[in-house]
Amino acid sequence: MSSKIRDYNKLAVDILNELGGENNIVTVSRCATRLRLVTQHTPDHAKENIAKLPGVITVVEKGGQIQVVIGTHVDKVYNAFTQLINTDKKVTNDNKANILNRVIATMSAVFAPFVYVLAASGILQGILILIKLGFPKVESTSTYKIFDFISWAPFFFLPIFIAITASQHFRCNIYIAVACCAALLSPTWTKLAELIKEGAKIDLFGIALSETPYNSTVLPPLFLVWLLSYLERFLEPRLHSIIKPLLMPLICLVIMVPSTLIAIGPITANAAHYIANGYNWIVNLAPFIAGGLIGAVWQVLVIFGVHWGIAPVITENINQYGQDSFQAFQTIAVIGQVGAALGFYIKTKTQEMKGISLSAFITGLFGITEPAIYGVNLRFKKPFIYGCICASLGGIVAGFFTPYYYTYAALPGPLTIVNTIKPDNMSSFFGVAIGSAIALIGPVILIQIFGTGETIQDNFNNQKTINTQDNNPKILLDEVDITSPMTGKALSLSEVPDPAFSQKLMGEGIAIEPTDNHVYAPFDGEVTAVFENSKHAIGLTLDNGVELLIHVGIDTVNLTNNEFAYHVELHQKVKKGDLLISFNPDAIKQAGYPLITPIIIVNTDQYQQISLTDKTQVTVDDIIFNIKQ
């Protein structure tokens, strides 16, 4: 519904509840604009209910994932969401998706977290291209060379990034994964690979090695980490706990690195090479057809979240040939939707849609089109269709100029067109520039002629939203006092050893170091969030409108051995003084977790003033919050 997000933390809690709670979550990840969730099953009406939440643009179920499209604030929702669940838990019931869906979900989970780093690298390379074009002599200076290797570093060490994100996705030890992939980037192996390429015979255990270098590769480190996860699970129950910390990385290193050099690396690298060559063969055969097709359908693939699957082709082209045509056509497709958002902004009469479309247009300049697609273009259909048509025409025209990108841009769009510049192939830049102009201007013209697709009812609903969107459903008429839910030592949030709380990312509040083992309802209300796997926290919506999160201990989401017990259920009405949670302080301390309990007002931004107690010791009868509307 794309209304203003007043509280990212509440949105995270609401999404979790609609999806059936912590036990139903298999994996969680994010990309530039989406919270990507894999669940064991999708509750009835969950997609529809989540789509109606303030701050959610839409919900897409594709590629084995529930993709909650939020926009550029997704990082805040993701950070809040991961605070609510045990992100390290092992889940075995995750094979329901077909192979294609699982591959797409994997590529998304692996690339999305560091896509902005690669995008920054691409923009820096574009800037260097312009500088070199205007001042050719600068290329020989040490300053230029330093910034040049800075711009290439994320791409060169791509296997390290993949090791980090893939280990999180496949749930294996991140440090072992990084160590294995780092070995593949060793300068020693690079020299050996060059010798093999020159004809030298180098073997490992009598098996001849191939000349495959692993800098900038995607599939070799990805498959390495995938197989590493199985090796770790095999070794886990078979190694004694005393020697496991040492033997686990030792065994994994001596098995996985040689296995990659002998088989995994050459096989997967060749597979990526053949896939890229297949695409290049099609482009060389009829580049204008490829350009028209990619321009037309690329943003359709974005709708379904399957666009990450092309990443290995692009990176392989850049790695092997130093150029890639797909990003050239991809850029034109992106600009088609940017132009549609701009055309909508110019044509629409409603202030709300002007704000949404302008924001979507600006975001699209950075290569992120989900806000434009879901917030405007697809919502009213016509702009999306016009954007695809004009992008297809732009791709056809660009195809006659043999366009290429000369670096991996990660988020192709208007700002990365300079990456098409190469002095001995300036037609590449001109082709993409002309195609992009068609894709940008075409939808603007078509929308002015044929309209935005809005109806009178749409305009009425938009105006109604403007008049009501700032009204809170629950209003405090004056002020209210909230008592402590537990007895203990009162602390400021700055003393909590967790930045999510100490930096007040979750909201205003205090912390209590308990001296007993009970949590009580501080006011009449309803239980609105529970965490069945760990039972370490609880969310309450009080009858006065205050939304509380009571989080017993720090990182206690990892405890699942009955250290906590609920005495209430989700959606249960409670009275002040009702017992909510009991816990075993000794077991929690023995496991190494602090008992400090943050008590957070989740909807902090709805209140003008929140006064905190100045007492150092509190009981359940003491007021800890005085809240004014």
TrEMBL record:
For this UniProt record, give its keywords in alphabetical order, as a comma-separated list: Cell membrane, Kinase, Membrane, Phosphotransferase system, Sugar transport, Transferase, Transmembrane, Transmembrane helix, Transport
Q: Which GO terms describe its molecular function?
A: kinase activity; protein-N(PI)-phosphohistidine-sugar phosphotransferase activity; protein-phosphocysteine-trehalose phosphotransferase system transporter activity
Taxonomy, top ranks, is: Bacteria, Pseudomonadati, Pseudomonadota, Gammaproteobacteria, Orbales
Q: Which residues form the PTS EIIC type-1 domain?
A: 98-466
Q: Where in the cell is it found?
A: Cell membrane
Instruction: Tell me the membrane topology, using the record's own terms.
Output: Multi-pass membrane protein
Organism of this sequence: Gilliamella intestini
Sequence ranges assigned to domain PTS EIIA type-1 in this UniProt record: 498-603
* UniProt protein name: PTS system, beta-glucosides-specific IIC component
GO BP terms: namely: phosphoenolpyruvate-dependent sugar phosphotransferase system; trehalose transport
Using the UniProt record, give the first listed, main subcellular location.
Answer: membrane
Q: Spell out the GO cellular component terms annotated for this protein, sorted alphabetically and separated by semicolons.
A: plasma membrane
The record places the active site at C31
| Key word Cell membrane present | yes
Keyword flag Transferase: yes
Q: Which residues form the PTS EIIB type-1 domain?
A: 9-91
Q: Which InterPro entries match?
A: Dup_hybrid_motif (IPR011055), Glu_permease_IIB (IPR036878), PTrfase_EIIB_Cys (IPR018113), PTS_EIIA_1_perm (IPR001127), PTS_EIIC (IPR003352), PTS_EIIC_1 (IPR013013), PTS_IIABC_b_glu (IPR011297), PTS_IIB_1 (IPR001996)
Q: Which SUPFAM superfamilies match?
A: Duplicated hybrid motif (SSF51261), Glucose permease domain IIB (SSF55604)
The transmembrane segments are 110-134, 146-165, 172-189, 247-268, 288-314, 326-346, 358-377, 384-406, 426-447
